[in-house]
Specification:
This protein has 305 residues and is an alpha/beta fold. It has a domain of 179 residues: Ribonuclease Z/Hydroxyacylglutathione hydrolase-like (Metallo-beta-lactamase, Chain A), CATH 3.60.15. 37% of the residues lie in helices and 23% in strands. It has 8 helices and 14 strands. The strands form 2 sheets. The chain has an 8-stranded mixed sheet with strand order 1-2-3-4-5-6-7-8. It has a 6-stranded mixed sheet with strand order 9-10-11-12-13-14, with helices on one face. Strand 9 and strand 10 form a beta hairpin. Helix 4 packs antiparallel against helix 5 and helix 6 runs antiparallel to helix 7. The longest helix has 20 residues. The radius of gyration is 19 Å and the shape is globular. The chain starts with a strand and ends with a helix. The protein binds zinc ion (ZN). The site of zinc ion has 6 residues, from loops. It comes from Alicyclobacillus mengziensis. Pfam families: Lactamase_B. This is MBL fold metallo-hydrolase.
Length: 305
C-alpha cells in the first residue's frame, strides 16, 4: 500500500490499483489506475484538482507512462471535477453522462462561486449539540471536502469527455482487456462500470457503496436493483466502489439489498424504513443524512409525504 495526501493506493492485481480516498481531504470519490500494458487508464478523477494531480503522478510512477485514457463512471462532481488535469488524455463516458455533464458542470461551478458562505454554513452545524457521533463525523467530512473545493474554485475549468459509448466499449491493451459497460440509470442518469475479465476485477463507481449509505435521489432505484442483479452474473472477485474500502461480491449484494429494502418498505409503507431511526444493519454505515434523503425521495416517488 502506498499512502498519498489524498488517497491510499492498493494493488488489487498486477498493475491494477485502487485509489481509496482519505475522508474529508477533498477528493471525496475513489478512483483507480490500470496498466493496460501499452497504455495507462485512470478510472474517475475525483472532486479535487490536487487529488487528480496526485492520481496522475502516481499513475505515471506505478505504470511508467502517462495516463492516456480516463473513464468517468457517472456525472457526479466527486468523479469528474478532476478531469481538467487529464485534458491531454482521451476522456471516456456514456453519451448520457456527457450530455448531463455539459449542462450541470458549469451550472454547479457558477452556483458554488455565488455561494461562498456555504462552507461556513456547514461549520455552523458542528455547534448543533443534538448531532449523533455519525452525524458529527459526516459534517466534519463534508466541511473538509467543501473547504477544499472552495479554496480551489477559481481554478476549475469544466472539462467534458471526448469519447462516448452507448452500451459498451472494449479496450484491448497489450497486457489486458478492459470492458466499459453501462446497463442504464441506477444511482444517476447513467452509470458505467469497468470490468477486467481476465483479472476478475470490477470498478463499479457508485453502483455500489461499501460502508456508506448509497444515495438514491438522482437515479432509478428499481432499475438499480435489476442492474446489480445483472452485474452479479459477471465473474468477479474484487470490487472497487466509489465510496468505501476495497471490497468483493458481497458488497455488491449488500448495496442491492439496501436498495431493495427501501423500495419494498416504501411500497408497503412498513415501519422498517422510517424517520425514527436507521435500521440496525445500516447504523454503522457512514453518511446517515443520505439515509434520510433516500427516505424522502422514495416517499415522494411512492406518493407519500
Ligand atoms: Zn455518485
Amino acid at each position: 500500500m502506498e499512502r498519498g495526501t489524498y488517497f491510499d493506493f492498493y494493488e488489487v492485481g498486477t498493475g491494477i490499483y485502487a485509489a481509496i480516498v482519505h475522508d474529508g481531504a477533498g477528493a471525496l470519490g475513489n478512483a483507480g489506475i490500470v496498466d493496460l500494458g501499452d497504455r495507462t487508464l485512470v478510472f474517475d478523477t475525483t472532486q479535487s484538482i490536487p487529488a487528480a494531480q496526485e492520481l496522475k503522478n502516481v499513475a505515471k510512477k506505478l505504470t511508467g507512462q502517462e495516463a492516456s485514457l480516463v473513464v468517468n463512471s457517472h456525472r457526479h462532481n466527486d468523479h469528474v471535477l478532476g478531469n481538467q488535469v487529464f485534458a491531454d488524455a482521451t476522456i471516456i463516458s456514456t453519451e448520457v453522462t456527457r450530455s448531463v455533464m455539459a449542462n450541470r458542470l458549469p451550472a454547479f461551478l457558477e452556483f458554488a462561486k455565488a455561494h461562498p458562505e456555504y462552507p461556513n454554513q456547514i461549520r455552523n452545524r458542528l455547534s448543533d449539540a443534538s448531532l449523533s457521533d455519525q452525524g458529527r463525523w459526516e459534517v466534519e467530512r463534508d466541511l473538509g471536502d467543501t473547504e477544499h473545493l472552495a479554496a480551489h474554485l477559481p481554478e476549475y475549468v469544466p472539462t467534458l469527455p471526448t469519447l462516448c459509448f452507448e452500451n459498451q466499449m472494449h479496450i484491448y491493451g497489450s497486457a489486458r482487456e478492459a470492458q466499459l459497460l453501462t446497463y442504464g440509470s441506477a444511482h444517476s442518469a447513467s452509470d458505467a462500470f469497468m470490468y477486467l475479465p481476465e483479472d476478475k476485477v470490477l470498478f463499479v463507481g457508485d453502483l455500489a457503496f461499501i460502508g456508506y449509505h448509497p444515495s438514491m435521489a438522482d437515479g432509478n432505484p428499481e432499475l438499480w436493483v435489476t442492474i446489480l442483479g445483472r452485474i452479479l452474473e459477471l465473474e468477479f472477485d474484487t470490487v472497487i466502489a466509489g465510496h468505501g474500502p476495497v471490497g468483493n461480491r458481497s458488497h455488491v449484494e449488500q448495496t442491492k439489498h439496501y436498495v431493495e429494502h427501501f423500495i419494498e418498505t416504501a411500497r408497503s409503507n412498513s415501519e422498517t424504513v422510517n424517520a425514527d431511526g436507521i435500521p440496525i444493519e445500516y447504523r454503522d454505515w457512514r453518511g446517515e443524512s443520505v439515509y434520510f434523503g433516500n427516505l424522502k425521495f422514495l416517499n415522494g416517488r411512492y406518493g407519500r409525504s
